[in-house]
Amino acid sequence: MTKVIRGTVVTPLEEFAGQVVVEDGVITEVAREIFDIPGAEVLSFDGCFICPGFVDLHIHGANGSDFMDCDPSAFESISRFLAFHGVTSYLGTTVTAAGGVLERTVELAYSILSRQDAGDTTGFRGLHVEGPHVSSARLGAQDGECVLSPVASPIPELVRRFPGAIRTVTVAPELKGAEPLVRTLASMGVRVSAGHTDASFEVANESFLWGIDRVTHLFNTMRPLHHREPGLVGAALTDSRVYVELIADGIHVHPAVLELVYKVKGPRRVCLITDSMRATGLAAGIYTLGRLTVKVDGGQARLESGALAGSVLTMDQAVRNMVSLAHVPLADAITMASYTPACAIGLDGLVGSLKKGKSADIVVLNRELQVEVTMRRGREVYRRNA
Question: Given 66, 275, 332, 348, which residue is catalytic?
Fold first, then answer.
């Protein structure tokens, strides 16, 4: 059936009053004028914003589940929860783990992706493998006992065995063996991000030549920006080709710095992420991230040491925070939550913007920027107060 969705359209690269026409899960027209289509279902959202669905490149879990539980029901639970918050595409993210947990997670992801068909509405697009090739000096909430050298990386073989399951890998570029690993993964079509790293400015710039084109949660778990040693932060901010992830919860990065990054990089190179863990959407308490114990209180997730351990942020809240805390125009905040992350993993031909021929992945936001409706491939997967 044809659907006509009316309201203030945020493509997100431009904003206007109009309508989006959807047929068989695909956008067939985005129009500034209002016109009727015989037999179409009309959905009018006066005073609301019709936006592309959000794309989260970095999420470990939510609603009590984690992708490394190695349980299909965890994927299903997280997917349902994400729909409540406007996310229509996402990468399940791993942590540095013991034994064969990573292999089992990749195998399960491959199995789930292999079963998807044209009508799939889960939003799962593959994995972001964060670790095990991280710096012991910048662990954050990674398990130091399970860190591996890139020299002995199992990841290329996993990519070969389970094609399409791994879309992104985070690597500390200063580690021995990082360069050949990055070059190998890039040649296999896997996007590589620098993170959990003590890399200098020089090493960071060199790694961009190997194939690294993104920075994992900018500022967090990396050498701080210093006026005489800019480090990875300085390298990323001054290279217009490099994407950066930002956790816009106002905790991981100060609101003034969120605004600064937006002004320096622009919306086409900033990817809003949540880095959320299994406690997201649940009450304060004690939870786990991998083998590590995490205390969640006051909207913060921390290890016993006090180090931040992911977040309990949702993507719709990240958008609201960029608008209210970092003073970013709504269209640009939406761009950073949808179009830019889609570009960062090569999915912009399919999702991330409202354009003829793309998947009808749509989120409707009210004037308070709360989610009213989420559609994946033209099917409603969430409606507020339904």
Answer: 275
